[in-house]
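Slide 14.
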Amino acid sequence: MLVLIRQAKIVDPRSDFHDKTVDLLIENGKIKSIGSSLKDKADKVIEAEGLLVSPGWVDVLADYREPGYEQKETINTGLNAAAAGGFTDVLLAPNTNPVVSTKSIVEFVASRAAKHAVSLHPLGAATQDIEGKTLSEMLDMRSTGAVAFTDGWKPIQNANLMLKALEYIKAFDGVLLQVPVEISLSAGGLMHEGPISTRLGMAGIPEMAETLMVHRDIELLRYTNSRLHITGVSSATSVEMIRKAKAEGLNITCSVTPYHLALNDEALTTYSSMYKVSPPLRSEADRKALVAGLKDGTIDCVATHHRPQEWDAKTKEFEYAADGMNIQEWAFNIIWKAAGIEVGLDRLIEALSIAPAKIFGLERTPVAEGATATFTLFTLNGTQATDKMKSASRNNPFIGAELPCKVIGIVNRNNHSLNS
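Slide 15: predicted structure.
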């Protein structure tokens, strides 16, 4: 199949075509030719006013809930949401039932996405059944497609087990991914601990519940000389600790969510459970530090932490409502509105595509003739309608908001998916 992308400005700092407006002809998943005005006939022509093309975006952590929690999301509806949001690749959380802690479940998850335009990359559980007691067979899962290892929404609390996990993955140059939450300090908390939680009379989660975990894991990383990725960084102190660890030469990377870039704990004054997330939304000073960390590269990439919940999981007393936002479809729009001008488009595309692909071993060749065609197509023009969603769930506080930019679609090798 021949796909022709007309008059698109390339956003790929590694490419000779960066910042140039060209036509791209794609055949059998490869870029056949690039020119200022190609005359070739094609089976599919893609064009739009102000069209931008970048290397395909990677979501570092999303949760599609299948198997076991299909009432919240399925792999198919999740991947449809990812495509609508411009993601060509998604790293999938292992917090399912059964847990993704054996190679057979890794194979099952991968098989469910085999024909989709979005490439799905399972994350294997670091501990057996995510119980935090014994290590899982990570090497077996690695051999069948798991790209990294994590206990996802139940981060490893036992320091000795975390140490063993970091040592284990060194045998195959693996990556351990950790959400920075110290559960004994966050238990019972509902939002960031600070003046606003006091004013609202809501139990607070201290910043230390994150920073203590970040500090501990950096110390374990220093001891093991392994590879660690911290996802969902939410505090200025965490950013500074990671910045210093990088300067020291430790092999540490990290990611931030769109909602931590866009929102602060003021959002909780509505008492809406749509804003209940883990780690929690923190202060405005923390939010600004996250934007600055993304801009200077301390924060390497973006993870949506897309976590769908069914209606009755969120529509209840705040204390009992489930954590998480269903945010993947509008992630770029939210990030651009919150931080795009300050961070800059080139750096943002690096954080969405080039950096996560490098960290997790995914192919991302520069835009050039003969290169693999894995692209996200978007425009900074216009606004995004937020009244319809491809996801099966609706726990998204941005529904009804006016968001800038539009994702046109994705091209991923021999497949493509375009938004209407």
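Speaker note: The chain has 13 helices and 18 strands.
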